[in-house]
Amino acid sequence: MTAAGSSFFNSPRWTGFKRKTKKVVSWFFTLAGVILIAFIFWKYFYTYSEGYRTGLLQKFSKKGTIFKTYEGEMILSSVSSTSNVAIASEKFFFSVTNTGLVPRFDTLQGEMVIVHYIQKNGAVFWRGDSKYLVDSIRLKR
């Protein structure tokens, strides 16, 4: 290289350009990291809604290949006939993270129950297959 070419890379103008570029790249990655963390929090940990569901506890099981989670299924009756038989219904799939509730779910299968749930925006594999997390159950009277 010539002396004139090497003097450009040692000039204050080049040094200022490098400093500004590093600052812009640093801000970009910081902002991208903050946006990524905020998205992960919103998608998997932010509570979108919570409430109660009433229905027939049809199924409750422990399943999974690597991470075993407790999964349940309820039948929610929307229309019933005069003989108290559900005509139109939908299923409510949920996960249970509190292992202290497992014996209660096991004994209430086939019963009409009321559950309290928390809905997340997405499911995390170690927490279960569903974005609905049930944290309490009681028998409907």
Short characterization:
By secondary structure, the protein is of the alpha+beta class. The protein has three helices and five strands; from the N terminus they run H-H-E-E-E-H-E-E.
Give your account of this protein's structure.
- With 141 residues, the chain is an alpha+beta fold.
- It has 2 domains: 42 residues; 93 residues, OB fold (Dihydrolipoamide Acetyltransferase, E2P) (Beta Barrel).
- It is built from 3 helices and 5 strands.
- A hairpin with a 5-residue loop joins strand 1 and strand 2.
- The mean pLDDT is 89.
Strand pairing plus helix content: what structural class? alpha+beta
Percent of sequence in beta strands: 35-45%
What is the highest CATH level, the class of the largest domain? Mainly Beta
Helix-strand sequence:
HHEEEHEE
Strand line-up across the major sheet: 1-2-3-5-4
Give the CATH H-level superfamily of the largest domain.
Nucleic acid-binding proteins
Number of strands: 5
Q: What's the rounded overall pLDDT mean?
A: 89
